[in-house]
From TrEMBL:
<dbReference type="Pfam" id="PF14748">
    <property type="entry name" value="P5CR_dimer"/>
</dbReference>
<dbReference type="InterPro" id="IPR008927">
    <property type="entry name" value="6-PGluconate_DH-like_C_sf"/>
</dbReference>
<dbReference type="Pfam" id="PF03807">
    <property type="entry name" value="F420_oxidored"/>
</dbReference>
<dbReference type="GO" id="GO:0004735">
    <property type="term" value="F:pyrroline-5-carboxylate reductase activity"/>
</dbReference>
<dbReference type="GO" id="GO:0005737">
    <property type="term" value="C:cytoplasm"/>
</dbReference>
<keyword id="KW-0641">Proline biosynthesis</keyword>
<feature type="domain" description="Pyrroline-5-carboxylate reductase dimerisation">
    <location>
        <begin position="160"/>
        <end position="264"/>
    </location>
</feature>
<dbReference type="InterPro" id="IPR000304">
    <property type="entry name" value="Pyrroline-COOH_reductase"/>
</dbReference>
<dbReference type="InterPro" id="IPR036291">
    <property type="entry name" value="NAD(P)-bd_dom_sf"/>
</dbReference>
<comment type="pathway">
    <text>Amino-acid biosynthesis; L-proline biosynthesis; L-proline from L-glutamate 5-semialdehyde: step 1/1.</text>
</comment>
<keyword id="KW-0028">Amino-acid biosynthesis</keyword>
<keyword id="KW-0521">NADP</keyword>
<dbReference type="InterPro" id="IPR029036">
    <property type="entry name" value="P5CR_dimer"/>
</dbReference>
<dbReference type="InterPro" id="IPR053790">
    <property type="entry name" value="P5CR-like_CS"/>
</dbReference>
<comment type="function">
    <text>Catalyzes the reduction of 1-pyrroline-5-carboxylate (PCA) to L-proline.</text>
</comment>
<dbReference type="InterPro" id="IPR028939">
    <property type="entry name" value="P5C_Rdtase_cat_N"/>
</dbReference>
<feature type="binding site">
    <location>
        <begin position="6"/>
        <end position="11"/>
    </location>
    <ligand>
        <name>NADP(+)</name>
    </ligand>
</feature>
């Protein structure tokens, strides 16, 4: 399977790192991006072929992943449409951009799967929300699933509108985790530990707790309560978080990301 990426930035690089040499040989992956330095790095790391603009290798690809910023998508689609094979599967990873708009910009191309991956794909631990537009065959749906499963888990959605909530939870989610880790590290340092110790303790705690939650069938609240001894240290911390409105702030943040996804689609889809 030949896969072309249009846009070789952060998320494309994470996907390519997860796919090259595992799902398919790096030489089966072609990356188009105007930044020569980024292309050189991807070529050196994974043996992918590269180009500065859409070219014949894109036209020869079975799958074309659209991995430019949402604001760049309309122009990219316009420059891509005359090169796109009618049977090529298009995977869009862009936040917001609606399938119908993309199909129109691509001159009525039918086979489009909208996806919302996340950067842990880099280490095969991503999770991708996916929705197939009408016109995607079962074989193409299976191919899209196989590509994204090669870099982690997949969750298929029936309703395209649900891709915005997925963006809010898991697409943007790694940034919230890193933000929380930064706060835990800062607290560790303020309490006298070194930055390295703070990072090690915080990261191991997050990874361990997340893995425990993944392997458990119990409600998350039960797992939390097991850490929380009556009148103890965790109780003191959680009471402080409640008083500071941490849960509400997180809920509002996820909703803000989801709303921004919907807004981007509306803004950028307008003719
Ligand atoms: N980062 C993430 O965690 C996630 C991102 N996404 C989605 O992935 C997409 C890319 O995001 P991200 O990787 O963060 O963004 P980046 O800006 O890192 O990557 C986009 C790349 O596309 C390049 N580009 C611009 N115009 C063209 C063109 N005409 N042809 C080919 N390449 C072009 C950009 O170059 P230049 O910088 O010079 O413009 C840049 O290198 C977005 O749509 C985003 O919504 C989805 C899930 C998670
Ligand atoms: O911040 C963004 O818009 C992209 C989409 C999800 C993660 N990063």
């Amino acid at each position: 399977m030949k896969i072309a990426f249009i846009g070789g930035g952060n998320m494309a690089s994470a996907l390519i790192s997860g796919l090259a040499g595992k799902f398919t040989a790096g030489s089966n992956i072609h990356v188009v991006d105007p930044n020569a330095g980024a292309l050189d790095k991807l070529h050196a790391a994974h043996g992918v072929t590269t180009a500065g603009t859409v070219d014949a290798a894109v036209a020869a690809s079975d799958v074309v992943v659209l991995s430019v910023k949402p604001q760049q998508m309309r122009d990219v689609a316009a420059s891509l449409k005359q090169h796109l094979r009618s049977d090529a599967l298009v995977l869009s990873i862009a936040a917001g951009i609606r399938g119908a708009d993309l199909a129109r910009w691509l001159g009525g191309h039918a086979a489009i799967v909208r996806t919302m991956p996340n950067t842990p794909a880099l280490i095969g631990r991503g999770i991708t929300g996916m929705v197939a537009m009408q016109g995607v065959s079962d074989a193409q749906k299976a191919a899209a699933d196989a590509i994204m499963k090669a870099v982690g888990e997949t969750v298929w959605l029936d309703d395209e509108a649900m891709i915005d909530p997925v963006t809010g939870v898991s697409g943007s989610g790694p940034a919230y985790v890193f933000y929380f880790l930064e706060a835990m590290q800062q607290a560790a340092v303020e309490l006298g530990l070194s930055a390295e110790q703070g990072r090690e303790l915080a990261v191991a705690t997050f990874a361990g707790a997340a893995e425990l939650a993944k392997r458990s069938d119990e409600p998350l609240s039960v797992l939390r309560e097991r850490v929380t001894s009556k009148g103890g240290t965790t109780y003191a911390a959680l009471t402080s978080m409640e008083q500071s409105g941490v849960k509400e702030a997180v809920v509002n943040a996820v909703k803000a990301a989801s709303a921004r996804g919907r807004e981007l689609g509306e803004e950028l889809g307008r003719d």
